[in-house]
Amino acid sequence: MTAESQNRNLETTASRSGPQSVGRILSILEFLASTDAGATLSQLAVSASAPKTSLVGLLAGLTEEGCLRRDESGRYYLGPRFITLAMRAVSGREFLKLVHPTLSALSSQTGETAVIAALNPEGDMVTYLDKVESTNSIRYSVPLGENRELYCTVGGKLLLAFFETDQLETYLRSHHRKRFTDTTLTGKAEIMAEIKKIRREGIARTSDEQVQGSSGLAGPIYSNTGDVIAAISIAGPSERMRANAVQNEQFVLRAAEECTKVTGGIALEASLPGPGRTN
How far is CA 186 from CA 6, 138, 151, in A? Predict the structure, then answer.
């Protein structure tokens, strides 16, 4: 067989297997989008018209990338990464319109800058999507569309806390963590302890972790499948944030609940993944 014919055979194989995999992925996503109950491997095999053995690797890859999530019983659901991408591509603008009044009210109630943030498409940074800045002369400010680290920003830590176990392990293993200040948490053990606290209490806190003199609070916004798809947060000078911490935490939690409600989401206990789950 000549090199030219070998190349033609490789191209033919790729053209057949590539679209087949894409078609199966689309069938899986469409099926899961049509149900809130998730699906077993057998159900997905039927929906994709494919043998179960050929889907195992595909499902594992989609789960590892955060496009799907798998519960303890083995059922598959749409994952936070896919939901976030769908939100941005299809209804992101509508989502932001729905939550903006709550964002504005939160800024007025607390006197601090309020922000809506979500994962970036790669799933390893947090992106600021909308904000209402404080009217105080000394305030926290951040450009919209900017990507920041997950492990040391308040919105990022909130989103990181709701990663699936495998996704979290991959992030902690592969993502370089720079120490921005003396109080930046960079060690795996201390980050895991912080994640467990966030999952237990339902709120994220930072104090001088990325920017010295700036602190924040963040609460989760849930999708209609119980996945955390965004964070609503406030940030401001650390001294002022510490003085108003108790009341501000209540304002942030109420705002997160309101954003979940107005966008049709639902907070599920089962959305707490891995370690730190409470009963």
Answer: 50, 28, 8
Return d(Cα 40, Cα 28) in angstroms, integer: 11
Is the Cβ–Cβ distance between 217 and 233 less than 8 Å?
yes
With both helix axes pointing from N to C terminus, report the angle between 52-64 and 3-33 in degrees, rounded to the nearest 10: 80
Average pLDDT, the chain: 85
Tell the residue number behind the tokens 């237990």, with chain if given. Answer: 200
DSSP string, 90-133: IIHHHHHHHHHHHHHHHHHHHSSEEEEEEE-TTSSEEEEEEEE-
Q: Determine the number of helices (DSSP H) and then strands (DSSP E) in the chain.
A: 10, 8
Q: Give the model's pLDDT for residue 93.
A: 66
Query: CA gyration radius for the chain?
Result: 21
Residue of 29, 158, 15 whose CA lies nearest to 89 = 29
pLDDT above 90 (res 97): no
Q: Within 13 Å and on the Cβ side, how many CA atoms surround 57?
A: 3
Neighbours of 178 (CB within 10 A): 10
The span from the CA of 184 to the CA of 208, in Å, is 7
In 3D space, the residue among 275, 267, 126 whose CA is nearest the CA of residue 194 turns out to be 275
State how far the Cα of 157 lies from the Cα of 216, in Å rounded to an integer: 11
